[in-house]
Amino acid sequence: MSARRILVLFGYPGRGGFNEAAIQGAERAARAGQALHAEWVAAGDPAARTERLAQLCNGNPDLVIVHGGQGDAPVAEVAPHFPRTQFAITQGSHTASNVASYEILQEHSAFLAGILAGLRAADGRAAHLSGERVRPGLKGRAAFADGVRRVAGRGPLTGFCGNQHDPDLGEAWTRALAAKDARVLFAMMDGGRDGVTRACREVGIWQIGNVLDWVARDPEVYLASAVADSGLCVERAAADHAAGALAVGRITRFGLEAEASLRLVLGAQVSAEERRTLDDWSGRLASGEVQIAESYEGEEFALA
């Protein structure tokens, strides 16, 4: 018998915080009585992802949750052919009569990460690294760069290495950024994070993580972590579908009010002065006084 509720994840089991957050969200959904069957799609090619999604839908599932903005294009192509199936995309933007999107506003914690990185970089550079150039990654980068610029007077070194899940590639880019005087690196990576962390440890630069609390896992390397638990989106989509209330046709967003899932976790090395500055910016952000940049227009870093 085919699975009636499917969670589609791009990447590999056991690697990366973004997918780990989804699995944790699925576990919470299961405890609430909304079990999801996880399907892993390792292919990085959009056409291959689309083909696999269509294969999964041939079993006519009731619900398909596709984790990550990489799901926008495959769902846009596949969903019209399966009108009886409801789809939810996490951190995406595509919607339709049978497609909902659920998004946690990671740009809020990414902006605060930029404030901290700009303060800590001092006479060096703040830096950013991500993998695929998808909408959530671009928004997070824009917010981080905005935060850096507000306190440092210039933007960060920033680049997309092309693959979220390749540790060797992540390590090579991190070493290249360090060679350009990066002192703090905000890494929006998944399976490739191990390589980034290895390089940060060896060359002696701070890392700021994202999605999960990486400070608790490795406080010697992580100065902070821009928590934006996308598992909340998985959990809420499953609950809404079970209640017959999946928010199709629109994007449901979670902001700073979901403080357990969206915040900047600080390590012990963050100074009292840095904490006071962050508290000030956080308050201005929550009040609506600060509007975060939605795009980045500066230079792009690339391997030589």
State the CATH class of the largest domain.
Alpha Beta
Computed over alpha carbons, the radius of gyration is 19 Å
**Overall tally of domains:** 2
- Beta strand count: 12
By DSSP (H or I, 4+ residues per run), the number of helices equals 9
Fourth-level CATH superfamily of the largest domain: Response regulator
Classify the beta-strand content into a percent band.
15-25%
User: What's the average pLDDT?
Assistant: 94
The ordered H/E elements are EHEHEHEEHEHEHEHEEHEEH
Strand order of the largest sheet: 2-1-3-4-5-11
- Please give the largest β-sheet: 6 strands, parallel
Could you name the CATH topology of the largest domain?
A: Rossmann fold
Overall 3D form: globular
pLDDT under 50 segments (min length 5)? Answer: none
Q: In terms of structural class, how would the helical and strand content be classed? A: alpha/beta
Taking the alpha carbons of the first and last residues, their distance comes to 51 Å
Fraction in helix: 25-40%
CATH architecture annotation of the largest domain: 3-Layer(aba) Sandwich
